[in-house]
């Protein structure tokens, strides 16, 4: 997003903005205030505001500093300011007349003699030292928590903020009661070699420093715009007819959500039209108990002990029943009204094929076809060695059959016996009778 409040340089980018845009919308800082007096001309430089607002640690802490030399600082510039026995580096968040409105809101006087001054624009050396000391903060948080646990102190170190020159460190902690951390300060000073400052904060302030996303899907109010933390109790939920569920009513900090107070005044104004002391009304059957109040439809819902059904009654009907009960009269019926919903019933959409012209069946057919082709190929590959074996066996069988056929043909062929001399029993047809016997030999039985 473009930055409308920062002045742009020759390259088209806002001057001094690290993210090159978004200063007025919270893109590079937290808890920003839109400078709607930015474009107003200054009529008298003598009466111009000589105080600027500087933010530290990405907006988690803001403070006012005097600009005695009236240097022209732009929103997003890194400047060096006075610190505790040294200097600190911060980012300019507001300049001009809007600063006076912010000081009035926070009850800070412009002529306060204890207000610190702006030293100069941050140099490269200042920025390098600042980044080195900022890199020490995560390790300092872990080490400080371990030391507090060793000393058995009932407290939690939430955040450690190092000064830019590394001479001072501020330890933000959370504790339910009062903590004696005199010994803790000595250990911290010897461990981190800095001047120690302890500052107690609440759970909501810790959530604002850490940040996060709420159940509504947006950034936490305490980390974006909310600065005044008011007490929230369960009565706010009861007035708004919300179920007392601790998990749903609690925020990231573990306390009741601050947004429960946003619409509380509207509900209180609307509930003034409802009658008081009407939690129980009497009818002929039994007593009816109040369940909830609908401020949008001006209805009061009651239930009977012998049924789980809820009966909506108008405010006039409840007042009339209450007057009859005072006279000792119990009406026969509650006379509930019929609640008609004005909301249009939406028809369920019919099935629409979002795929379009592509049918899933055609895809299945193509897949089945590919699978069948793969199976056929695999079968053919597996049948080749079998065919070779069968082919060899068939060749052997064929050779045997040919041999048998040739033998059969040879058997069918007439045998050509050579004529024997002096053999009178030889037949001319080439066949010899087995029944004929020689005359000189006796016949065998």
Describe this protein's structure.
Helix content is 31%, strand content 16%. It has 445 residues and is an alpha+beta fold. The longest helix has 53 residues.
In brief:
This protein has 445 residues and is of the alpha+beta class. The chain has 11 helices and 12 strands.
Tally of strands: 12
**Beta-sheet strand percentage?**
15-25%
How do the strands of the widest beta sheet line up side by side? 2-1-4-3-5
String of helices and strands: EEEEHEHHEEHEHHHHHEEEEHH
Major sheet description: 5 strands, antiparallel
Helical percent range?
Answer: 25-40%
The structure class reads: alpha+beta
**Low-pLDDT sequence parts:** 1-27, 424-445
Shape: extended
- Rounded to the nearest angstrom, the radius of gyration is 51 Å
Q: What's the arrangement of secondary structure elements?
A:
Elements: E1 51-56, E2 61-66, E3 78-83, E4 86-94, H1 98-105, E5 118-121, H2 124-134, H3 137-150, E6 156-162, E7 168-174, H4 182-192, E8 195-200, H5 203-210, H6 221-224, H7 234-239, H8 246-249, H9 264-270, E9 280-282, E10 287-294, E11 299-303, E12 310-314, H10 315-326, H11 360-412
Parallel strand pairs: 7-8
Antiparallel strand pairs: 1-2, 1-4, 3-4, 3-5, 6-7, 9-10, 10-11, 11-12
Helix pairs in contact: 3-4
Key traits:
single chain; 445 residues; alpha+beta; GMP Synthetase, Chain A, domain 3; 5-stranded antiparallel beta sheet; 4-stranded antiparallel beta sheet; 31% helix; 16% strand; disordered N terminus
